[in-house]
Amino acid sequence: xxxxxxxxxxxxxxxxxxxxxxxxxxxxxxxxxxxxxxxxxxxxxxxxxxxxxxxxxxxxxxxxxxxxxxxxxxxxxxxxxxxxxxxxxxxxxxxxxxxxxxxxxxxxxxxxxxxxxxxxxxxxxxxxxxxxxxxxxxxxxxxxxxxxxxxxxxxxxxxxxxxxxxxxxxxxxxxxxxxxxxxxxxxxxxxxxxxxxxxxxxxxxxxxxxxxxxxxxxxxxxxxxxxxxxxxxxxxxxxxxxxxxxxxxxxxxxxxxxxxxxxxxxxxxxxxxxxxxxxxxxxxxxxxxxxxxxxxxxxxxxxxxxxxxxxxxxxxxxxxxxxxxxxxxxxxxxxxxxxxxxxxxxxxxxxxxxxxxxxxxxxxxxxxxxxxxxxxxxxxxxxxxxxxxxxxxxxxxxxxxx
Length: 402
Prior knowledge:
- This is Outer membrane protein beta-barrel domain-containing protein.
- This protein has 402 residues and is mostly beta strands.
- The protein has two domains: 75-214, no CATH class; 218-400, Porin (Beta Barrel), CATH 2.40.160.20.
- The chain contains five helices and 24 strands.
- Strands 1, 2, 3, 4, 5, 6, 7, 8, 9, 10 and 13 form an eleven-stranded antiparallel β-sheet that branches.
- The longest helix has 17 residues, at 2-18.
- It is elongated, with a radius of gyration of 31 Å.
């Protein structure tokens, strides 16, 4: 089981790093729309090319953005390709000059759409810094000018012409936005906020694509219930007939889980707690005397704390294959193993826990999973080396409430 857990963790890591294909679309330079899978690379800088598949089985295509006019992934990531004025000035202190004017060059680049409405906002990130653009529905891209430069004594001055540009664009709502303009900064959050406010004041549709960018990591809370199926046997040394086996123990489980999603929602780190119904099982075993039997009774109650990692593999829309692995800490209470004809004085203790491996499916907020546990779930005897052997699997159905 430990080797299985290790191999699962390695698989989860490489799967999340290399399998980033998601449902998306492209619009080619000749106006053709194509739907398929695009490799989501969480672009720190805006892309110069993308990796595209028409379906999971087809070979990967490398497409330069010069061959596209637009592409998107899901409902959150959209890029528009256009020729714009790009300020090539550097934002780095060591590269600043005394020229306060932007150094514009015509470039064909992929602009990430942040806000869509009467006025739309776009972002471009590259090695020299971050640039923002605005565009009216029937207009051209306009670069918002923000530039740091050197003044006397090597002090840093700032050209904030973008505030005047936006003031002109917002002229019909200037009184409502005056305070916002005074507090405005050249940042994604500040610009998105004021442009969204203008669009809403103008009774325009306002669509924000910034949520996906902000959410580097997501936190989920889930509740689940299910059924656990267990078999366990004990072997007492030197007493061949004192080896009870309890097969097909069934009990209900109920629990909750906290999960942190990272790596573009492809990898989850989770922790949870589950309570299980009490076990009380009896079996009849043969004694050393023919025709004489005795009853062995096993009873206990235990709760579980678990920790692990989970990988999400997209299949079809909104449906993910889920693979996870981790460890549990078992709290065993009121454990007893008794025989009606034999007296045993054994010192049983709870084990520290077990490893587990799980596989399942997730559809939107609903998930189903089978989880398999290692042979370390039940109390061991430490005074007379009574060995224990068990198998354990549980099936759970859950819902992500957050």
